[in-house]
Amino acid sequence: MKFKFNINGKKYDAQILKENDKIIKVKVQDKEFTFKEKEEEIRIAKTNLPKRDFKKKEIIAPITGEVSEVFVKKGEFIKREKKIILLSAMKMENEIVSEFEGRVKNVLIKKNQKVNKGDILVILE
User: Fold this and answer.
1) Number of domain units in the chain
2) Residues pairing with 115 in the sheet
3) H or E element: which one contains 69?
């Protein structure tokens, strides 16, 4: 799962590389971080990860926020890592990118709409 976020004007790319019951590996910019099961951070990280069914091509909100921009429309074909939505949360702009390739079946949100972590934003075919 990939994320882009902005803190005080500085842009960051982050990616969850590996997740299992024992370890979570996260890459921010070019640095990798590993959290082990017994560490407090992994418990926090696990609670912040949305549950996903990767058989369905659903793009979900990784955080609670407000939709600043929607970059796709119904019927459009998109590739992996295409910017889908700009989500504002806590004075940060977060670029939500697609983890999938496919045709946009449904866009469930609109500009200025508030969304909760885990809400489905876009469904692909």
Assistant:
1) 2
2) 65
3) strand 65-70
DSSP codes, 2-13: EEEEEETTEEEE
List pLDDT tens digits, range 27-71: 887 788 776 665 555 454 555 545 555 557 888 888 899 999 999
Q: How far is CA 17 from CA 20, 24, 33, 35, in A?
A: 10, 8, 10, 12
Place of tokens 């508030």: 114
**Concatenated DSSP letters of 14-66:** EEEEEE-SSEEEEEETTEEEEEETTSHHHHHHHHHSPP--TTS-EEE-SS-EE
Residues 62 and 120 in one domain: yes
12 plus 42 within the same structural domain: yes
For residues 68 and 10, the model is more confident at 68
pLDDT at site 76? 95
Domain containing 9 equals 1-49
Query: Which tokens in the block code for residue 12?
Result: 């960051």
Q: Does residue 35 sit in the same domain as residue 57? A: no
